Amino acid sequence: MHSGSISYPRIREILARPCKCFGFFQFHTCFYCSKVAFVAKKASCELTSRFYDYPFAYTRFNAYFSSFSVRNFNSGSHFLSNSSVQFMGRDNFDDGNGDYAKFRDMGVRDSGELCLFDDHNGGRQKNRNLKFGDFDEVEEEEEEGEEGRDCRDIDDNFMILNSCNGHRVQREDVWRVELEEDEFRHPLVREICRLIQLRSAWNAKLESDLRYLLRSLKPRQVCAVLLSQVDERVALEFFYWADRQWRYRHNLIVYYIMLEILSKTKLCQGAKRVLRLMARRGIECQPEAFSYLMVSYSRAGKLRDAMKVLTLMQKAGVELNLSVCNTAIHVLVMANRMEKALRFFQRMQLVGITPNVVTYNCLIKGYCNMYQVEDALLLIAEMPSKNCSPDKVSYYTIMSFLCKEKQVKEVRDLMEKMSKDSNLFPDQVTYNTLIHMLSKHGHADEALEFLREAEGRGFRIDKVGHSAIVHSYCKQGRIDEAKSIVNEMLSKGCSPDVVTYTAVVDGFCRIGKLDQAEKMLQQMYKHGCKPNTVSYTALLTGLCRKGNSLRAREMMNVSEEEWWTPNAISYSVVMHGLRKEGKLSEACHVVREMVSKGFFPGPVEINLLIESLCQEGKMDEAKKFLEECLNKGCAVNVVNFTTLIHGYCRKDDLEAALSLLDDMYLSNKHPDAVTYTTVIDALGKNGRIEEATDLTMKMLKKGLVPTPVTYRTVIHRYCQMGRVEDLLKLLDKMLSRQKCKTAYNQVIEKLCSFGNLEEADKLLGRILKTASRTDAKTCTMLMESYLSKEMPLSAYKVACRMFNRNLIPDLKLSEKVIKQLMLEGKSAEADNLMLRFVEHGCHSPQFE
């Protein structure tokens, strides 16, 4: 082949195997540059037809041959140089081994570009032509109270089932990777995890080291790094950072591991971006990838968006399989939409997707959540007729519900049914499940009965089951029963572990016997069981609950001498205890020490401290504490800033509040409607109504929606200042952004409270357009204000306007109006008002 010519059949053979095409032409162009024109001319027709089968191979062929034709020869280059196919950059396949090695490792199946038009499904193209722009169609909406609209949207998403091929073979190839323990302990994985933990002190050298190590990682080791992160957001940031690095691309399994991690969180936006990135990289999106996104939406409470993923799959050309259908039913069940889940269950069977035991178990769980145990039992009885036998999980699900309701007799009947109907006999797992469920729901006595029964049948319940009963007794304050179980464990040779002793320590702390709790910690050493951080944290909780937080603080200071290390919960417990006792300075010191040890307080803990400092008037200390938390990288949010701004407003230090409002933008913490409302109220309170107006307009221009509190604040301050015309102009702009049906009712009521009845009467026509109960209440308040100022004729006119809108004024109030009209000699108006009541069927002895 080195000395011969490139034959036409050889080109046909190479083109039929596009994964070898690149290496072939890259090698042979070095020897046969003079013969390329002839071969290309002869093969032009074949290449044209092959392009639609293997466009990527044709692109590489065109790119390399055209480059040689430009440099080495002009004749015969017309075909290649005039081709409309553009050169595809090498950085699409960043791999240190070159393109040929990339194709050798990936193969046709793993390359989205190579398989773009390759059809292995009888003419049906799958998701290789997926467009990542389609993922933007999944809108992140809050679920509103529009039940009809929500149900209709979910039903529309069921239509994807109609496009399923009922005769196709169902695949269950879930992309799940099982990692060994050695992969988590690999030196490279541990070093990268260490560098990630130093992200608060990030610099160019650390990033360079991390980038160098990244190129040496294997795909499974990258997965181990992602799974090793405690915070899923940190794992997602590392995933994005690694994807941006030169000469590196994530392997297929890394994407699925990242999606699996995100499916266990509420980070649905991150899961959607990962799925979009897969489409952009040309990576095949299996149905399981969409399932992960659905579960993430479900955890975030966004049912409509979760079900819209089904529509997204249809647009992407991905067929439903049984796994996705089970996920959809699970999402509906978790959202308590059992009716929709059953409808989906029926429709999936109509299109030929046969449910399995997982499908039925999801429905059984849904029935139990809806307290419909009878229907769950009927479903179990129906399963054998559907060629799907129930497993132990099916029965355990119902048993769990019965344990929660303390229906022990029904549990025993179900155990007999499980043995008789399904040939599933109770084993040690069954008894362990019952013991844990009963103990979890506070039924320790019943759990102890099952423990005795299990031991009578020859099963040995381990210390985990005993510890569950001990913990249940301790939560109820029944320490004597708990101690007897511990002694029984020792006599059986089932040595209690640290969990068992910790439960007893916590039980003593719950009933206030702190001395006994400390003695129990000392006894643990005698029994060869070393207390851990959880054990000492239980004691710290008891001390703080008893108001002895300083003692708890001293215990933390000597923790190293006791050979235990406080964790984030330990610091949080002591911090809350000091805060409740009013020792705010010590609480702040605990938080600072907590941050220095690498434990970051949450926004709630930060907010509680800031609020306590503000209540005591220590504004400077509160601001300093917030700045320290911000500089240390703590999760400071908008609520923390708003709390501090509110503290400044209560002290009438508006300049500091406005300055802090500007600092929020510098810290990339954008104020929300609550923040603006707080400052607007303070400005109006101090008579700076023009600045309040400007700030309100600024809030609207930023797209923030006014809250009901915003309306009440603005209305109160403007009515207090008598700026009714300015208020109405501002309300028109606010109502164009967010509707408030009672806005003008609030204006009239505030004007009445401030005695401005003339302006209130002018606005009466705006609220009588709807004629609701709220409008009637507002009119009643206006009538009372008129009567208090001895203006019965005006009150009479308000009552007449109410009658014209089919609203009935208050009868007792109208009697007072009639009485004052008679005293003032306006008998005609009084008689007319009495007649209107009689016409509407209202009668009173006063009228006679």
UniProtKB/TrEMBL annotation:
PPR repeats by residue range:
286-320, 321-355, 356-390, 427-461, 462-496, 497-531, 532-566, 567-601, 602-636, 637-671, 672-706, 707-737
Instruction: Tell me yes or no: is Repeat among this UniProt entry's keywords.
Output: yes
Keyword Repeat (UniProt)? yes
User: What keyword terms does UniProt attach to this protein?
Assistant: Repeat
What InterPro entries does its record include?
Mito_RNA_Proc_CCM1, PPR_rpt, TPR-like_helical_dom_sf
Q: Which domain of life is it from?
A: Eukaryota
Molecular function (GO) terms listed? mRNA binding
Checking Pfam families in the record gives: PPR, PPR_1, PPR_2, PPR_3
Protein family = Belongs to the PPR family. P subfamily.
- Identify this protein by name: Tetratricopeptide repeat-like superfamily protein isoform 2
Taxonomic source organism? Theobroma cacao
